[in-house]
Structure formats: C-alpha cells, structure tokens
Write a structure and sequence with these properties.
Layout lengths: L1 H16 L2 E7 L23 E3 L6 E3 L4 E5 L2 E5 L2 H9 L1 H4 E6 L2 E9 H10 L8 H4 L4 E9 L2 E2 L6 E8 L4 E5 L1 E3 L4 E6 L7 E8 L8
Antiparallel strand pairs: 1-14, 2-3, 4-5, 6-7, 7-8, 8-9, 8-13, 10-11, 10-14, 12-13
C-alpha cells in the first residue's frame, strides 16, 4: 500500500514538473519565421481584423498597419521604418517556437532600435528610463494556440539568453495589456550567435503528503 502511495506521489510531482516548459531555438536559425502561418503573420487579413506587427508585436487593425508581401506571405507593421527594417533582415526581428498546439512568436530589437522606433511613432514618453538603463536588447513574446490569440492568465514568462561560450543571462517578462505581449529588456551576453530559451512556469498546485 505504501509503495503504491509513493508511486502516485512521484507521478503527481512529475506531472507538476512538466508545468515548467523549457523550449529552445537559435536566434540565427534560418527561415524560422516562414514556418508559422497565422492571423498574426503570414496570412492576408481583412481591414477590420487585428494583426500583429512583425517587428514589435503590437496588435492593431490591419487597416491601420503597413502591409508588406514577402515570399508570398503578408506581414504587417506599425510604420514604414519597421517595414524596411524587416525587409532587410526578417530573421533578425521575428522568430517562432512551436510546442504542440502552443506557439510563441518572438520579436527582438536592440535597445537603441527600440528607442528609435518608439520615437518615430511618437511614443517616446512611454519609455521608462529605469527599465532600459544598461540593457542591450528588447524582447516581446506572444503566445497563440491553434493559430488563435490566447491569454495565459497567471503563467509566468522569462527569457534566457546563452552565448556560444556558455555565458547566460535571464530576465523576467511583464505582460502589457496595451500590446498584448510579454516584454522586457535584457543585457545580452557578448557574441554574434545566441540560444534563446523561453521559460514558461505555470501556477503551483498544493499536494498534501
């Protein structure tokens, strides 16, 4: 009886551990942005449909965005400047991670590019000096499920970046109700190629042992 109880407890603890989703991809992976087709990126949208900016993740109506067709797909942007940035190097700004039916789209900008972008859109007043001080890059992440927008509730997200020498930095991400993204700034380890891990932690459950 005790053995069966212990097995059940171990099985329960293993199930809880699965709640920590640990996904990995390389920022320099080629054509990663082409593999994900959804109402955010890749498909043509009606004017009244909300779409994601492929550079910063901001969600607005398609009629208010700049539309760019590339490789037979449609991408949307908040400004002409963002559209030109993306066309010059799509893989630099947009990456995709898929785990089962859950997908994470990720945008990354240098802090300087983020400040320039916000200033260009007249939103420099939203930049918080204490959040960006000393930080080198800005990440925004937004999850979808079966190609539809989802809310993760109390789930916590963090970004972890590791260079080829094994140096690792991590930063917690905050959810923005206006942008509908999880976003944050980080000091990127030195190097030209990095691995980025998105840590997804579910709320804990209590078990009486």
């Amino acid at each position: 009886m005790k053995t069966k109880l212990m097995l059940r407890i171990v099985a329960s603890l293993m199930a809880i551990t699965v709640g920590l989703l640990f996904s990995i991809f390389s920022i320099n992976a080629e054509d990663a942005h082409k593999k994900h087709e959804s109402h955010q990126h890749g498909e043509h949208a009606a004017d009244d449909e909300k779409v994601r900016c492929a550079v910063d993740g901001m969600m607005m109506k398609a009629s208010a965005m700049i539309k760019v067709e590339q490789d037979g797909k449609a991408y949307y942007f908040c400004s002409d400047m963002q559209a030109e940035m993306f066309k010059a190097n799509p893989n630099k700004f947009l990456q995709t991670i898929s785990v089962g039916n859950l997908t994470f789209d990720l945008n990354v900008l240098t802090t300087d590019a983020y400040k320039m972008m916000m200033s260009h859109m007249g939103m420099e007043g939203m930049i918080k000096a204490d959040e960006i001080k000393g930080k080198t890059h800005y990440f925004s992440i937004y999850p979808t499920h079966d190609h539809g927008e989802i809310a993760l509730g109390d789930v916590k997200l963090a970004i972890q970046v590791t260079n080829t020498e094994g140096e690792t930095r991590m930063a917690l991400l905050k959810y923005s109700k206006m942008m509908h993204t999880y976003a944050g700034f980080i000091v990127m380890p030195k190097g030209t190629e990095h691995e980025v891990r998105v840590r997804v932690t579910t709320p804990a459950v209590k078990i009486s042992l």
